[in-house]
From TrEMBL:
Keywords: Hydrolase, Membrane, Metalloprotease, Protease, Transmembrane, Transmembrane helix. One of its GO terms (cellular component) is membrane. This is Metalloprotease. It comes from the Bacteria. It comes from Chryseobacterium koreense CCUG 49689. InterPro entries: Uncharacterised_pept_Zn_put (IPR007343).
Length: 284
């Protein structure tokens, strides 16, 4: 992935500042499965974020390493490109884009949706319109789930989470929350709604990739393949096979590996936000 000269002021780097006192999820494959599920969580994740096993001790303050500072620079660059691309898309459709905050943290931090933990991976909190990123998750994604992690696959993850922010701005998140709160729909029906929500965020990530590349020529050979690898790694069928040894489609909440690839590529190939109605495509 080619870097641009753009940087965002909306990145809050909390690494190296101490912390702790929150909850700590226990280790092992079970935690990693949970992490992968929450990785692309839509809606309000407070119920999961506020749960945990034990509490974490305070961590000492420290200076960030040169590599960590480079990661911050990268996240700031990607954040700036999401701001420019979505600002342009919203303007072209007669709307105004309000950019989310991006928080980088390690181990544990507080979010508007509850206690954020490293084991849960990146997520978007609609309550404070903020994306929370613990970069250590990508090592687990590569080592335990077989994803090919590159700079662009990290950018894709950020673009997916900001896709959830786009859903919040467009009112999609609120409508899904209303459906869930009504109690009129079964768990299986709400699971299908959840799948549609997550696949639309994948679609928006693809739209972002296409339009940003058109403007800044950021893509290099293998970048799109690495994004697809990350998406497929956390497909419901892949997670279920690793966690329980078989696939139960009624339990899908995020979409299969094939669906995640399909909708990301549809967004990338069309570059058109209007082509991403996953709800009618999946729920009719």
């Amino acid at each position: 992935m080619k870097w641009t000269n753009d940087r965002s002021d909306n990145v809050d780097d909390r690494r190296g500042t101490g912390g702790g006192g929150g909850f700590l999820v226990g280790g092992g494959l079970g935690t990693l499965i949970i992490a992968a599920i929450v990785f692309f969580l839509g809606g309000d994740p407070s119920a999961i974020l506020s749960s945990g096993i034990g509490s974490s001790p305070p961590t000492e303050q420290r200076d960030l390493t040169a590599d960590e500072l480079k990661v911050r620079d990268f996240v700031s660059m990607v954040t700036a490109e999401t701001e420019q691309t979505w600002g342009k898309i919203f303007q072209e459709n007669g709307m105004q884009y309000s950019a989310p905050k991006v928080v980088m943290f390690e181990s544990v931090t507080q979010s508007g949706c509850g206690t954020a933990q490293a084991a849960m991976g990146p997520f978007y909190c609609p309550a404070d319109q903020t994306v929370y990123m613990d970069m250590s998750f990508f090592k687990e994604l590569e080592q335990r789930f077989g994803a090919k992690v590159t700079e662009f696959s990290i950018a894709y993850v950020m673009a997916h989470e900001i896709g959830h922010h786009v859903q919040t701005l467009l009112g999609t998140t609120g409508k899904v929350d209303e459906l869930r709160a009504s109690g009129k729909y079964s768990e299986a029906e709400m699971n299908r709604v959840s799948v549609a929500t997550e696949l639309q965020a994948d679609f928006y990530a693809g739209v972002w990739a296409r339009q940003t590349d058109n403007r800044e020529h950021i893509l290099e050979p293998g970048d799109i393949e690495s994004a697809i690898s990350a998406a497929e790694a956390v497909g419901d069928d892949n997670i279920q096979r690793r966690s329980q040894g078989y696939v139960n489609q009624e339990g899908f909440t995020h979409g299969s590996s094939a669906q995640r690839k399909e909708w990301f590529m549809k967004g990338y190939n069309t570059g058109d936000i209007r082509q991403g109605d996953t709800f009618n495509a999946l729920l009719r």
